[in-house]
């Protein structure tokens, strides 16, 4: 018999090598790697991966497969032990989702089957990218929509526009009860066994927020499309202390471990739009996140192997205590975000980009430090996700290779798009003084520090002109030094 090795982010019978597997000729190997579990991920991420692996193992066994699920020091050690025990005719795996895992397969002579876990294979992306002076996500998105046919009426985009992002920038509503609670599952004996087997890392223990089977993940998809997708577009960029999920799908963990596939998710959204149940701005905004941004990030990871080393702004500071959990903060927006990460290992894309990453950039955290931290705290973290998102989108550490401008802002953005500032001791309108919002102070200091690096960027012309008009820039920069010391010492 041949053995099919299934990695912990490919947990679906429809992916790659498993799609055509036969219980009569194939056995399945799943390795719970102690090396990976000891990397310091949030306990809920480790639980998601291991519990999902064990449930898939049970489903495969019920379908007649011989399944070898084993805990080992590493994936390599697990594979080598399996070979000693079973002497398979051939070892097969679906193309892994990281360079390290692919190198392992090469080293162990494991045959790699082309993956269908994404909608654009990196070979196709490389062909699309060849010869382009820039690779804007919007251009890739339009090419992908035409190729896949989502939200297309013939050769034209549905309702005559490719992008409805301008309709998706409303602040949170006055009544946050319009957002429904994310359903939870009751933890069972398998969950207890998994938790007992995990190393002690960080974060609150799971309470059933995250599905750990394909059946449950599909139920979460149906719930999102029926209950939240209709209002998703309007509030896509909003933040509120009154709802941790708002109208977001909260499906990224399932996509990133394979419990859901991007095509089936987009199919459901398209069906709801065509049935008249979902407005175009919500359907298009969500599909753009999946077939546009997610596929784009996945492919840039493979295209740019040196991306993780980017640091064009030469930021060198270590993570401050508020990020590591060694201190709290009086900044209401960040305090709520850190609390949500501890409790659920998840916040949506705007707190990730415009709070956590924005503040890290303004403060000057080393890009690699932020990337490693984010990899540890998010339930949907993966190397292919983190490298382009952090180095390119979040920190502009690559100098514009991916994003046309740094995504930095002062407190005015937070005030406009959230309800945090009303309860915060800091004033987003103030640049100096004890009550000045650290975002606002550090924003202007960032502009002053990096003027030379930004002055050739046309999209930064207006902010730099505003910088030149400040009458108290010296005072702002003095205040920024005080803020940096306070953040470093856990006093802000």
Top keywords for this entry?
alpha/beta; five-stranded parallel β-sheet; Serine Threonine Protein Phosphatase 5, Tetratricopeptide repeat; 3 domains; 492 residues; DNA Cyclobutane Dipyrimidine Photolyase, subunit A, domain 3; 7 strands; Rossmann fold
Instruction: Specify the CATH class of the largest domain.
Output: Mainly Alpha
Order of helices and strands: EHEHHEHEHEHHEEHHHHHHHHHHHHHHHH
- Under CATH, the homologous superfamily of the largest domain reads DNA Cyclobutane Dipyrimidine Photolyase, subunit A, domain 3
Q: Sum up the overall morphology in one term.
A: globular
Proportion of residues in extended strands: 5-15%
What structural class do you assign from the helix and strand content? alpha/beta
Explain this structure to me?
With 492 residues, the chain is of the alpha/beta class. The protein folds into three domains: 2-113, HUPs (Rossmann fold); 122-180 and 228-303, Alpha Horseshoe (Serine Threonine Protein Phosphatase 5, Tetratricopeptide repeat), CATH 1.25.40.80; 309-488, DNA Cyclobutane Dipyrimidine Photolyase, subunit A, domain 3 (Orthogonal Bundle). Helix content is 49%, strand content 6%. It has helices at 16-19, 34-37, 43-62, 75-86, 99-107, 122-129, 137-148, 189-197, 214-227, 229-232, 252-257, 262-274, 280-303, 321-324, 332-344, 349-363, 367-377, 383-394, 411-417, 438-449, 451-454, 461-468, 473-488; strands at 2-6, 26-33, 66-72, 91-94, 111-113, 152-153, 156-157. The chain has a five-stranded parallel β-sheet, with helices on both faces. The chain has a two-stranded antiparallel sheet with strand order 6-7. Helix 12 (262-274) runs antiparallel to helix 13.
């Amino acid at each position: 018999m041949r053995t099919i090795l299934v990695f912990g982010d490919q947990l679906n019978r429809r992916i790659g090598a498993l799609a055509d597997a036969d219980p009569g000729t194939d056995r399945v190997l799943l390795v719970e790697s102690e090396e990976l579990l000891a990397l310091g991920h949030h306990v809920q991420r480790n639980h998601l991966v291991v519990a999902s692996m064990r449930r898939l193992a049970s489903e495969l066994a019920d379908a007649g497969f011989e399944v070898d699920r084993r805990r080992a020091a590493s994936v390599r050690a697990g594979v080598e032990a399996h070979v000693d025990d079973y002497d398979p005719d051939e070892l097969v795996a679906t193309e892994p989702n990281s360079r390290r895992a692919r190198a392992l397969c090469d080293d162990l002579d494991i045959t790699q089957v082309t993956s269908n876990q994404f909608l654009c294979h990196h070979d196709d992306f490389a062909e699309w990218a060849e010869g382009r002076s820039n690779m804007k996500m919007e251009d890739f998105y339009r090419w992908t929509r035409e190729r896949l046919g989502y939200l297309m009426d013939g050769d034209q985009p549905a309702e005559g526009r490719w992008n409805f992002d301008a309709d998706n920038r409303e602040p949170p509503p006055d009544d946050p009860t319009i957002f429904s609670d994310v359903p939870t599952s009751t933890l069972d004996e398998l969950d207890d066994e998994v938790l007992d087997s995990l190393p002690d890392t960080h974060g609150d223990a799971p309470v059933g927020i995250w599905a750990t089977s394909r059946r449950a993940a599909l139920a979460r998809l149906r719930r999102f499309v029926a209950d939240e997708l209709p209002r998703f577009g309007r509030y896509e960029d909003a933040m509120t202390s009154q709802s941790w999920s708002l109208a977001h799908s909260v499906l990224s963990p399932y996509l990133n471990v394979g419990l859901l596939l991007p095509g089936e998710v987009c199919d459901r959204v398209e069906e709801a739009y065509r049935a008249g149940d979902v407005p175009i701005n919500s359907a298009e905004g969500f599909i753009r996140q999946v077939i546009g941004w997610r596929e784009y990030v996945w492919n840039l990871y493979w295209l740019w192997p040196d991306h993780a080393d980017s640091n064009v702004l030469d930021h060198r500071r270590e993570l401050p205590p508020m990020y590591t959990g060694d201190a709290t903060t009086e900044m209401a927006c960040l305090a709520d975000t850190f609390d949500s990460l501890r409790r659920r290992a998840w916040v949506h894309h705007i707190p990730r980009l415009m709070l956590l990453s924005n503040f890290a950039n303004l403060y000057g955290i080393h890009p690699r430090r932020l990337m490693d931290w984010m990899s540890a705290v998010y339930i949907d973290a993966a190397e292919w996700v983190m490298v382009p998102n952090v180095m390119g989108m979040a920190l502009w550490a690559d100098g514009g290779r991916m994003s046309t401008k740094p995504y930095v802002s002062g407190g005015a953005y937070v005030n406009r798009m959230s309800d945090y500032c009303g309860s915060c001791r800091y004033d987003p309108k103030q640049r100096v003084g004890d009550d000045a919002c650290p975002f606002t102070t550090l924003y202007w200091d960032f502009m002053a520090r990096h003027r030379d690096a930004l002055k050739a960027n046309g999209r930064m012309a207006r902010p730099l002109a505003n910088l030149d008009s400040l009458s108290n820039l010296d005072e702002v920069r003095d205040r920024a030094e005080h803020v940096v010391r306070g953040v470093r010492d856990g006093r802000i």
